[in-house]
Amino acid sequence: MYPGRYATLHPDRPAFVMASTGESVSYREFEARANRLAHLLRSWGLQRLDHISIFMENNDRYLEACGAGARTGLYYTPVNSYLTAEEVAYIVDNSGSKVLIASRAKRDVALAAAAECPRLEHILLIDDDGSSTDPRVLDYATATAGQPDTPVPDERTGTPMMYSSGTTGRPKGIVRPIADVAPDATNPLSSFLAQLWHYREDMVYLSPAPLYHSAPQAAVAGTIALGGTVIIME
Question: What's 107's domain CATH number?
């Protein structure tokens, strides 16, 4: 989820549009949002190869959460938004996530899961109502508001750490090595898939699937990397 030069070349082009509301987020705004979260994560001490988890339905904050991980060298784990608190807790704890980002719709499940994750350091809730007594909880917009919208000085590529469906027991985390390179470095696999699927700069990609799944993650990331526009269905 790293737009690279397209945030500069085409700042006003829509990076993504929410299908149900028509809300459009430009590459300029997407870059600024992802950078603010990236700075917040760095301020909390997260470094390359650390982990965060994302527990949300498809929404307008999902891609920037992934984008922040993709530029700070992190493993970011999209968690199935239909899981129970016990199931979410297992993935968050098993991955060693230091931060959990959750939507308002998933708030109750996220907080119940977080209660079982003593290693979890911070919980970012979208549109938090302030009623939680967990000292780790912060409202997402409030926490990121004062952060710079420019890139962190030590940008490194990050990658999703997906979990299997767990058909033979608990879900298994799929840990892929992360190259110690800049986030806009050439990725041979991404280049191959872009050619195979005929990705191009002016494309508009309809994403009807949940973003916690590996296939839409790859397709959306490829679109963003080439400066296209993603239509996100909810």
Answer: 3.40.50.980
